[in-house]
Amino acid sequence: MPSSRVALKLVPLAWVLVLSWGPFAHALPSASTPEPQSPEPVPEPREAYACTFEVAPAEVLLRVVDVRGQPIPGARVAQGPATSWGPPRFSEDGPVTDARGEARLALRPGPDLRASVDVMAEGYAPMRASLGVAAGEQRRMDVKLWKPVSISGRVLDARGRPLPGAKVWGSKGHDHGVSAESDAKGRFTVTGIPEGWVTLSVTLSGQFIAQTRVVAPRRDVELRGAFSALDVQVLDAQGQPLPDVPVNIETVPATGFLAPVMKTDVKGRAEQAVLPVTRVRATAFWNRESFGWQTSGEVSLVAGKRHSLVLSFEGSSLRPPLTGRVVDTAGRPIAGADVMATPLAHRDPGIVRDSPESPAQFERSQTRSDAQGRFTLKDLRAGAVRVRAWHRYTLFQDVPPVQVAPGQDEVTVVLERQRAVEGRVVDPEGRPVSNFQVNDRSFSDAQGQFYDVPVPEGRTTLTFWAEGFAAELRVVDVPAGKRGRLREPIVLQRGRRVSGRVVKEDGCTPIAGAVVSLDHADAPESGVRDFVSTLTDADGRFQLGSLGEEPLFLRVAKREASIFSSALIPLVRVPVGAEEDAVTVRFTPEVSLTGVVKDNQGRPMGEAWLHADCALFPIPLDAAGRFAMHGLDGGQPCSLQVSTDDDAGPPLHFFSPRQVMLPARGTLRVELSARSGPASLKVQVPRMDMWLGLLEGEVPMPETWKQYKALRGVLRTDPCEDCRALQRHDKPGEYTFSQLPLGRYTLLVGALRPGLDGMAFVRVPVNLTAPGQTRVEVSATELRHVLELPRRPPTPPETPPSGGCGT
After folding, report:
1. Residue 307 above 60 pLDDT?
2. pLDDT value, residue 173
3. Closest CA relative to residue 101, chosen from 144, 148, 135
4. 792 inside domain
5. Phi/psi of residue 724, each to 5°?
6. How many CB atoms lie within 10 A of CB 174?
7. Domain co-membership, 388 together with 483
8. Are residues 437 and 304 in the same domain?
9. Which of 652, 673, 694 is the last residue of a domain?
């Protein structure tokens, strides 16, 4: 079993974002904390059950068919490996399909009740299909195999001339992709492509230029791409060619770089032969040891035309070196401070410092202060600049930049020290504890000393942790502008360990990956103090150390939180006595959800996915449209949405969301059918980086993203070709909702910023009164309060709704 040091680990970030509470989020040991000499066994929980840990296999009746639904006899089947990337494990005496294409296979599900099946037949591409399966279950599953075929044709430009060197990708869904390169006459042949509808995408020099859908096999495909070329020349301050200078090209407005960074040749030139037909900005970065200058220019590209652009630093003059000192509020020098200056017309140095992009991509001069706090910034261009200093350790508060006028050659930057606390840590006998942690800072000191631990203004709680001791909490109050020292040493008491298992209702079946955290009686119901946390292993076992000799509570979550799932996470709170060292945690009954998905003609359909907010993962349908989800928590609502493969080809099917109530126990069977209606809705929005949600009925305006998600029931738009062309986000977007019954709907439009809690929406009532297409245009004026919201980094705690068609 793992050692207590290994078992004590911080729950991953996704869990912390959702469930962490208070000042304890950073009080786990650092990687430098020494390991115990030998692992200790996890004791058995005192509450014992007569458990049989042999998991009964599930029996699956497989039917293997081709793309036309005809049985494939002689196909070999086997259970896939635990990891999706592992090799297949066929055996010579393993199951083989009979004349009806059927074979029986015993599967042993993993802890997450998921398994995979490998299928291989001569003349067909091998297939690995995943499914949810419960121990002892008997079920049917159809698997579809396809024959590798080829697609050939030519790649041409907008004028019909051949394009050599273009890469043609053929793909079906997210599982298959092969490529080929066009020859001197633009000809290509993609082999090993699946039968049926596939998507062909063309790139040239790394740039997307064309995309279409065809039925494989085929020999006469013409792929036409519209693109332009740009030649950039960079000149230095004297107007001479500037070699070896990086040049980036991006769209206007900026949506990301369009090509890998180029460098100018000995003549100061750089060429990008394939660019999308749009307005672009080219930026050159002249980087040296102590400075970086930049200059840029814009041009609107025309299809089939080669454009030229000159980027010049000509006429730029240097200002004298800018010298100065970095000191604290008492005038004492600060050594090792980073100092950066940027022109007033460019970004604040603090923004450059915190940018995920390289500082070399911004115009700046940078250095570090010496032992006397002195610094010199060289090679700044003439003009006013901003100067900002900061320290790589969190010992000083962030201060606004200092503006330096032309002609001013000396500047002093004053940094205010953070409030900090220092003190000493000892064991119950008064001996120093040499390796310990205070909040998120680790210390290794023979005298047990700690220092420069930043604290906020007012009262705060410090967390002390050391291997073999109980975590200690101490409330401190450091006056403004002072460094506080704890008069009495922090005494760490010997810690104890609590071990146990997390199991299902039967008291035997383990729950792997459950999150076990130390809780307290005063913790809020919605929070977890996670400074002592661990995950259960494959047998559902856990061990927590550094616990005090007192009654406590454990908070146990059935699984980790994930930004990719909105499913609720069941939690239980377990009391543990002062002398109790082993517990068993049992969860409530689990239920299953099974069913079939049909098209709008009532025929079962595969090549689709079922998304459920009560499940962790999307569920793939088998070739007969069947699905099964096990291990769900009963008695709660579950919203279901079917998404079809964009590469499935016509006819396209669209589904209305369905909300069901799971039973307290047992199995619920549902049937989902594609919607059928005579109307469609085409929506025009001013930008491509928007998302749309169409809901049936009259829905009130949500005020936050959370309220929007609570509405559920978002209808999906038709597959959108333009959504894939990232370089076209600056152009307006058109989205279509098809197969709609007549009636009232609510259209919601917003900007794609799911991390912004104060999400603003535009609500458009829609009434479809007759068959045919209804058009709705949402103008930039209507969306002004949405588009003007402050942007935030794209790291949302929740995923956008499936109904949105924005990227």
Report:
1. yes
2. 67
3. 144
4. no
5. -85, -20
6. 10
7. no
8. no
9. 673
Residue 415, domain member (yes or no): no
Q: How many structural domains are present in the chain?
A: 7
The three-state secondary structure class of 193 is: strand
Cα radius of gyration (the chain): 32
Residues 6+ apart with CB under 8 A from 358: none
| Residues 685, 559 share a domain | no
The residue range of the domain holding 558 is: 24-51+495-586
Residue 639 is part of a domain; what is its CATH number? 2.60.40.1120
Give a yes or no: residue 799 inside a domain. Answer: no
Same domain, 181 and 289: yes
| pLDDT-derived band at 343, boundaries 50, 70, 90 | confident
b/e code 213-245 from CB counts within 10 Å (16+ = b) = ebebbbeebebbbebbbbebbbbbbeeeebeeb
**What single-letter amino acid sits at 621?**
L
Angle (CA) 450 451 452, round 5°: 145
Q: How far apart are CA 241 and CA 269, in angstroms?
A: 8
Q: What is the pLDDT of residues 363-409, one digit of tens each?
A: 888 899 999 999 999 888 888 999 999 887 667 887 888 999 988 99
> 432 with 447: CB under 8 angstroms?
yes
| Residues 231 and 258 grouped into a single domain | yes
Which pLDDT score is estimated for 523? 41
The full DSSP string for 157-206 is: ETTS-B-TT-EEEEEETTTEEEEEE--TTSEEEEEEEPSEEEEEEEEETT
Q: How far apart are CA 405 and CA 383, in angstroms?
A: 7
Domain CATH number, residue 362: 2.60.40.10
Residue 159, domain member (yes or no)? no
Amino acid at 804: G
Band the pLDDT of 644: cuts 50, 70, 90: confident
Burial of 640 (0-12, 13-18, 19+ CB in 10 A): buried
